[in-house]
Amino acid sequence: MVFRHARLLVTNACIALAALALGCSDGGSNPPADAAVDMALGEANGTINDVGAEAGSAASLTGTVTDSTGSPVVGAKVDVGGLSVFSDAQGKYTLASLAPGAAVVNVTQQWFQPLQQNLTLADGAPTSWNVPLIEMPLEVAPADRALANLYNQTFDWTKQTVSISIVETPTRRAFDNAVYFHNPALYRDTSATAPLTPSPQPVIRAGVASNFTFPVLSGANQGQEALDLSTIVDSIKDTPLGPTEPVDYMMWTPMVNWLNEWDAAKSVTMKVAGLAVRQQGWGGNAIRPQEIEKVFLDPSTGRLWVKVVFENFVQLGAGVSDDDGDGRKEIYAAVASAHYTSEMVNVLVTNYTVSTFSTYSLSKQVTKSLNEIYSTTGAQVERTIGQPFAVAGLGTITYPYIVLKDAVGQENVFLVAPAP
Fold it and tell me: Which domain, by its residues, includes 50?
């Protein structure tokens, strides 16, 4: 698979991916996307008011906007009587040139419940007010779940432009899986690609795989195989993982991205192993004839197994079939042990797959997990938490977590349940 390339769309000076973390949208109540835009608008220090402040006013309001954990909230809009400012990178804000006396303060930011507070502003001295914002709750409404389940009974990511994913637990892995698995924005039609026939053809006969090779092309493990070739099988039932694919899988690409954030030096061998599989061109020049899709952990041995999916233009030999019925052939194999360590497996198990997030903290993780995919498809934030989204011909999702729309029209709807 390759991403569709499109120019990154910019709306209201907000880069769409920065909007995911900072809450930008096409409405008028949202902050600049990042520090660079803040500087351009003269708002870098969080003290610029809207045009219209009364000359000679002596009151001011200052403070810090934080979430439930005490962490600063960036880009919250603080408004007093039509004068407004956005909190800076430390959550700090200052509104000057205000009229002294009674004032109604409104604070808004995506991912949080709107807050209104009555204050009395002192004449001639700053009034301090630290703003405790409460996050919008994560939830999957029963009606939304029913609609999503009905839709997904006939969903085909190769034909439909809307996907609806339910994230049952707000972990990085669960959200990454929802983003990367059968996302219409990631589909590419290879039906017009000329057939590619490896020579000799990879085959699996009597449970033994032959002519498969995925050599590492660079780095410390250059020349070694990315996969343990002796473990290659055609069906998941022929692995130690069981008769069906485990439900607690990881998608390879976002998992490797997360490991890179954890420790780039320690995880580079895993990244290079994945590239070796993707770059095996079998003597042709087609882009990505195959790639690793899913990763499974064998808890009994600590080994990582992967599912390698081939594009249909790759002409494979006997014994390689479409085991899961999704229209593409695949194999299962263990990653060669030289490419990862027990420490890497442990951090995946204890952090990537387990640690849960609140609404706002998940939004910041989402920005990281979506950066690779959506920066290349020109996506914009179409809806954020609690804003209804209509599914043509089916009904309305009343409480989506977020809806993203890319440059050519694919829409991804994500419903996120709270942590247990």
Answer: 45-132
